[in-house]
What we know:
Blueprint: H1 2-12, H2 22-34, H3 56-61, H4 64-73, H5 92-104, E1 111-120, E2 128-130, E3 138-147, E4 156-161, H6 171-174, H7 178-193, E5 199-202, H8 209-217, E6 221-225, H9 239-243, E7 250-254, E8 260-265, E9 269-274, E10 283-289, E11 292-298, H10 300-308, H11 311-321, H12 333-353, H13 360-374
Parallel strand pairs: 1-5, 5-6
Antiparallel strand pairs: 1-3, 2-3, 3-4, 6-9, 7-8, 8-9, 10-11
Amino acid sequence: MFVKYSNLYASKKNVLNSTITEAEMKAFFGILILSGYVQLPSRRMFWDNSKDTHNEVVSSAMSRDRFEFIMSNLHCCDNSKLSQQDRFAKVRPLFEAINRNFQLFCPVRAAHSVDESMVPYFGRHGCKQFIKGKPIRYGFKIWMGAISSSDCAGYCVWLEPYQGSNTQIPTMYKLFGLGPSVVLHYSTVLRQMLSLPYHIFFDNFFTTVPLLEELLRHNIRGTGTVRENRMSKCTVQSKTDMKKTTRGTYDYGSTEYKVLIVKWNDNNIVNVATNNLQVHPIHHVSRLQKRKKITVDQPQCIKAYNAFMGGVDRCDENISYYRTSIRGKKWYSCLIFYLLDLSIQNSWHLHRLQGGSMDQLTFRRQIAMTLLETNRVSRKRGRP
């Protein structure tokens, strides 16, 4: 894909006698991967002759000018066939291929979570978002569904870039609202993979009572924190009354279609809605109160939410450790590099599930060194 469309783009710029080969593209991506754990202030320093920054593996695999040429022509689509309605058309073929492969090799697990991820970007683009309180505040927002089971928590199953009303979500789901439509679309993706009693966890941006009722119709279990103004179908104590109770107090009620809503007084009032879990058995958790440890009651549905909500956050955490540090000038470069890091993160999960013992850093180093050492680009000698 990259070799074909990068050469097509270069040819349309009338760049002659500079065809990019598959070996060159592999070496190019090897350098990108290496930049995640060997970070320098400028990418040109990898080829610098200074002893303190020169990288022999990089410089022997590809010349600096060749790397810059591939970077300036990097493409994964045909610009003459871009959809005017899709603001991410430049990377749409890559997203489709990534989703297809992630789902093809996806481990079979019941617990999943849906949340938003951020791709750092500081340039100008109509889809760039600002999200207060996130580790990455500026960039492209990505809807993501990931596995939450402990043995492979963070494996990304599906992702879709957010682009407002043009987000690639089926119209029939958009009737439920923006957040619920994302969860419903992800539930469809899971059902198409394999028919299992999946359990999806999500936060209060996504949770509504109609969403949980719709999931129940498709035999999908759902649990999420819920906002106060979305509990009109269930009678439970108000937030004001709950604040007057002791820590660990809980109240619950159910809707007509068996959606359970639980309020729990912890450090703050926590609201959880579920279409499958129950209040009992009650668990006991330790808390600090006035510098002393106390034990408070915790309903079963809240314990399960805390245990299985963090799939997407774990994925973001894994990527953040060794994120590709080289940046491109084009807005879509950051998305290509993000998908590269995400693919390695997923591959590492599969490696561990098959009995592999490498940690993520060793795994990334192994990939980078293999790409660089087996795809060295031969250089033409200049004129004498």
